[in-house]
Design goal:
binds protoporphyrin IX containing FE, 446 residues, Cytochrome p450, alpha+beta, 11% strand
Length: 446
């Protein structure tokens, strides 16, 4: 068994900077080419070596053994500045207790209420659209999903001005995060305009959440929303007498985590789905038929979700083609074996759902948008991980799928979104995968 040196090096390594130019030039194409080199591939980022896991079975091994392959690396270091030690960023040692305490917020019984907020706010949004207008689809979806996140977390209790401030903070954080991640630590403190805006936004967002939590503590009444559930959470495994509760600091970390990590990927997914449908009139027509059939029975609700089968497959396929979380890292806490290599503690591992989802040996015509491939029993479900895997798998998966399908159905019930140019769909480099400059024309359905 070999060490890191036995792992093949990715092509395009340049002295001193390693693979940074290849990653900046065309990151998705570069990442998707790596499996040609092997199941494990070495990347150099300046002085650091990163091992990319390109094989779905080896990747599951990494994700399932989250004690040895713990959260770490530049993205998580930067995310911790914003999210503290919340569920997504905390180390393995703090994870299980937090997950148990957050779990009730995502229990099935809460979903009819969440779904009502999702459909209600979508209706409000599409009622404001005008036939023939050209919209920036990502902007529209970002505002909508952030409003849904706030409504489900804090029910109706937020003043409009605070909602506006939190939406602005979220925009500044997401805009600044990628620059912070790719800027070397020594330069990250240079007070550029973007860095100052990012810092102000993350401090201000935390302060807003702290104020909301303090007001809830003072008012003392029960609230039927995600924050109320987190405040009431008890951990049966740390009883007696009634289990450990989340401290105010932990609560702040969780709420900021759900807001920052929850809204952004759903907005990207919806924007990509609408763009893909605009280029696939056959699928779009069948989707309209499905949505019309469901609406003939009554409004779109959580209970009618199983009837929206094609809408579900459109979202599944969109998440395969454009998984919003496209690159994650882990740090080995102990010397460990992975496939043919033995890696030392401290080694950095990377994984990319995008890379796995675009492997032509796993998915036929991997770059094509084919929602019906998910009806084939042979589709490689073990190689589908837009929500990760193992104990650190996304806690918001059911929430995200519910929201994406319901919002898509509400939109397509009333509107078509048509291409305005022949330009192919392009992606923007960010901490999440997002469509770049996606503009579509609204056409009201007859
Ligand atoms: C389409 C939407 C979403 C996608 C594609 C997505 C994707 C992911 C992925 C890939 C992970 C694992 C990251 C890793 O392995 O390092 C993750 C974790 C997580 N996600 Fe999501 N997510 C989505 C929506 C949401 C929503 C709506 C919420 C909350 C309301 C959320 C909260 C979290 C949290 C807290 C974690 C960490 C879980 C843990 O470590 O126990 N996500 N997500």
């Amino acid at each position: 068994m070999g060490g890191i040196a036995s792992i093949p090096l990715a092509p395009g390594c340049v002295p001193l900077v390693g693979h940074a130019p290849a990653l900046v030039r065309d990151p998705l194409r570069f990442i998707a080419s790596l499996p040609d080199r092997g199941d494990l591939v070495q990347l150099r980022l300046g002085p650091r070596t990163v091992v990319m896991v390109c094989d779905p079975d080896l990747l599951r091994h990494v994700l399932v053994h989250d004690d040895a392959f713990d959260k770490g690396g530049p993205l998580f270091e930067r995310l911790r500045e914003v999210l503290g030690n919340g569920l997504g960023t905390c180390p393995h040692s703090l994870h299980r207790r937090q997950r148990r305490l957050c779990r009730p917020g995502f229990d099935g019984e809460r979903f009819p209420g969440y779904a009502a907020a999702m459909t209600g706010l979508t209706e409000e949004t599409v009622n404001g659209w005008r036939d023939g207008r050209i919209i920036d689809v990502l902007d529209e979806m970002t505002t909508l999903t952030a409003r849904i996140a706030l409504a489900t977390m804090f029910s109706a209790s937020l003043p409009a001005s605070l909602t506006q401030e939190m939406l602005r903070d979220l925009g500044d954080i997401m805009g600044g995060l990628i620059r912070q991640v790719i800027t070397p630590a020594s330069l990250a403190r240079v007070p550029t305009l973007s860095a100052l805006r990012y810092r102000r936004a993350r401090l201000h967002l935390r302060a807003s959440v702290e104020t909301i939590i303090a007001a809830r503590r003072r008012d003392g009444s029960d609230h039927d929303d995600l924050l109320g559930t987190l405040m009431d959470a008890r951990d049966p495994e740390t009883a007696p007498p009634d289990g450990q509760v989340l401290s105010d600091e932990e609560l702040t970390d969780q709420v900021v985590t759900f807001f920052v990590t929850g809204a952004d990927p759903i907005s990207s997914t919806l924007a990509f789905a609408l763009a893909l449908l605009a280029d696939a009139p056959g699928v779009e027509r069948r989707l309209h038929e499905e949505v019309d059939r469901v609406r003939a029975q009554g409004p779109i609700t959580f209970e009618r979700l199983p009837l929206l089968e094609l809408a579900g497959r459109v979202i599944t396929e969109t998440l395969r083609l454009y998984p919003p979380g496209w690159l994650f890292t882990r740090i080995l806490t102990v010397d460990s074996e992975i496939g043919p290599a033995r890696l030392p503690a401290g080694a950095m591992i990377a994984y990319s759902p995008y890379l796995i989802h675009r492997r032509p040996d796993l998915y036929e015509a991997p770059d094509d948008f084919r929602p019906d491939r998910w009806q084939d029993p042979h589709v490689p479900r073990n190689a589908y991980l837009p929500f990760g895997a193992g104990a650190r798998r996304c806690i918001g998966e059911h929430f995200a799928r519910t929201e994406a399908v319901l919002v898509l159905a509400e939109i397509t019930a009333r509107w078509r979104l048509l291409p305005v140019t022949e330009r192919p769909l392009r992606c923007a480099l960010s901490t999440t995968l997002r469509p770049a400059h996606l503009r579509l024309r609204l056409a009201e359905r007859a």
